[in-house]
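Crash report, auto-generated. Payload:
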Amino acid sequence: GAVVSQHPSRVICKSGTSVKIECRSLDFQATTMFWYRQFPKKSLMLMATSNEGSKATYEQGVEKDKFLINHASLTLSTLTVTSAHPEDSSFYICSATRGQRLVAFFGQGTRLTVV
Amino acid sequence: GDSVTQMEGPVTLSEEAFLTINCTYTATGYPSLFWYVQYPGEGLQLLLKATKADDKGSNKGFEATYRKETTSFHLEKGSVQVSDSAVYFCALQLYYGGSQGNLIFGKGTKLSVKP
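Recovered output after restart:
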């Protein structure tokens, strides 16, 4: 079956540094990728929708300059958390949608801890 | 390891039919359980949740009861509408010593409702 690989699964970084999270669709071309964030004791929050070759569409309240999303190819989208702060510590997860079938496949998620 | 198994789709129903989407889980502790929904072209949304055994989550006519004895969280709706056509994801989340664990998703079940 289709697989979405997200890397890294865990990362600890220092305040002020940037962290890049990759989301790859391994055996299909993902026309759309979604990036989510989960705050402590909250449900998932959609951050942005990313279509290959175009700028990501950010949800209200999500800082596009802080959370840089690049969807350079049909199999790879990246989320870069720039100048990370402790409040950015969270669980980030991507999902990829294949064509018109609208079935989404999830990455394993990334646990980011900023110290 | 911890996992979520949900019935494979696609599920096709006529309008006003009764819906059940089965979800069972395997977890080492006592997880919170969720149903998420993804409508065509949109990101994931939380549909309902339950945090302890025998809790019933409900929203938009959908219900699911946390059954610890059968490790299940089946999604039901008495009368589906065309607008319910979407992909439904069952998910669990464990908490370790007060810390939030990662979300673990089922593979999703696509529902198509015909008029």
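Post-recovery validation: The longest strand of chain A covers residues 30-38.
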